[in-house]
Specification:
Radius of gyration: 22 Å
Number of strands: 8
Largest sheet: 6 strands, mixed
CATH superfamily of one domain: HUPs
Distance between the termini: 44 Å
Number of helices: 13
CATH topology of one domain: Rossmann fold
Strand order of the largest sheet: 3-2-1-4-6-5
Bound molecules: iron/sulfur cluster
Structural class: alpha/beta
Order of helices and strands: HHEHEHEHHEHEEHHHHEEHH
């Protein structure tokens, strides 16, 4: 925490953030704002401040567009996905009613790059710490694509993130590394994108205190958010914009991530939802555990990689390829059973079509033989 921020009362800190936002929004340039919104507490607080600042201005001075951008991996925990959709709908209608220049956008992975198309279609093994193929395809690329499109139309954009030093020691290091000490910092990967972290020096307690004291200007209350955290035991999976954010994805045992995440050892948030009365979600927890279990089963992995090559480690042991076609069909059957049992949409028809097309191509090229040796590394390309 900066020394100045540490000396301020909470009211003074809030005034200081609102003043900073107003000053930046009133600057001479026309660069639009993009608020990275996950539906979690930190990005909700940033949006709360942004909308309060906009409302403090006369309508004629609200001249720059504010894009509220959320990402849906399509494998979000159902309660989290519903909360996000509800929030986005409220923000959209609330902003329209208040005549605010706010655009609400939900990005998602490309149709041929979703979790199930890669895992069940192409046979990518369930993600692990050493082979985490999902974050870039499902989180970084969809949002980056939207930001780049806005940079292309506007020259530059200001990206507002609910990043806080206190989130974790990893986050504090990353904030310090990418901060020049000023309000706006060039994004690490996205040219023309300037990052603004308005609540970087707020503590977790302060974030909750402010949210509990204020109503969202777009309508409703923050009570749903409190319940979600209480039941889900925890952390949040913030909008992931670049690889420096990626270590936080799937590595903490208590955050809202994809319900399919096999990178975490245990899905504590899903366990929390079930313990708090959502027993219908139990098949998801069982499916996730099973996906983690089968990833190293040699009888379910191909000998060949998807490019037809067979690769070996220095000690001569085989590096297993993707899941076999039989295993992929088995995963699809289990997923459809879980879908039926939970009554939740777990896979879309579009994904099923993509998967069937890939299976047909793989069968035509004879990709399907199982590995005979233990799996301890990955190869799918
Ligand atoms: S939460 Fe897990 S499955 Fe989802 S993108 Fe992150 S690492 Fe991958």
């Amino acid at each position: 925490m900066s020394e100045v921020a540490a000396c301020l009362s909470l009211e003074d800190k809030i005034e200081s953030v609102l003043g900073d936002l107003l000053e930046e929004y009133s600057a001479e340039h026309d660069h639009p704002w993009i608020v990275g919104f996950s539906g979690g507490k930190d990005s909700t607080l940033v949006l709360q401040f942004v909308i309060e600042m906009l409302l403090s201005l006369p309508p004629s001075a609200r001249r720059r567009t504010v894009h509220v951008v959320a990402n849906d991996t399509l494998v979000e925990a159902p309660l989290v996905a519903k909360h996000l959709d509800k929030c986005l709908a409220r923000i959209r209608t609330g902003s329209e009613a208040l005549r605010l220049p706010v655009t609400v956008i939900k990005t998602s992975p490309k149709a041929d790059q979703t979790f199930w198309v890669n895992l069940i279609g192409r046979g990518y093994p369930s993600p692990s710490r050493t082979f985490r193929w999902c974050t870039d395809r499902m989180k970084i690329q969809p949002t980056s694509h939207y930001i780049r499109s806005q940079v292309a139309s506007n020259g530059k954009v200001i990206l507002l993130l609910g990043v806080r030093r206190q989130e974790s020691s990893t986050r504090a290091v990353s904030v310090n590394r990418y901060s020049n000490g000023g309000r706006l910092n060039a994004h690490n990967d996205l040219q023309g994108c300037l990052v603004y972290r308005p609540i970087v020096d707020f503590s977790t307690e302060e974030v909750w205190q402010i949210l509990l004291q204020r109503r969202p200007p777009w309508g409703g209350t923050h009570r749903d958010l409190v319940t979600l955290y209480k039941n889900g035991q925890g952390g949040e999976c913030p909008l992931v914009i670049d690889k420096s954010d990626a270590p936080s994805c799937g590595t903490s045992s208590s955050r809202f991530g994809c319900w399919t995440c096999t990178v975490v050892v245990k899905d504590r948030s899903m366990e929390g939802f079930i313990e708090s009365g959502q027993e219908n979600l139990e098949p998801l927890l069982e499916m996730r555990d099973w996906l983690a279990e089968i990833r190293n089963d040699p009888t379910r992995r191909m000998a060949h990689r998807r490019n037809g090559k067979v690769t070996y480690l220095a000690d001569g042991s085989l590096i297993p390829g993707p899941f076999t076609l039989t295993a992929r069909r088995e995963i699809m059957d289990r997923l459809l059973e879980a879908q039926m049992a939970t009554g939740e949409v777990l896979i879309t028809e579009d994904e099923v079509e993509h998967i069937e097309r890939i299976w047909a191509e793989d069968a035509a090229f004879g990709l399907g033989a199982a590995v005979a040796e233990p799996a301890d590394s990955e190869a799918v390309a």
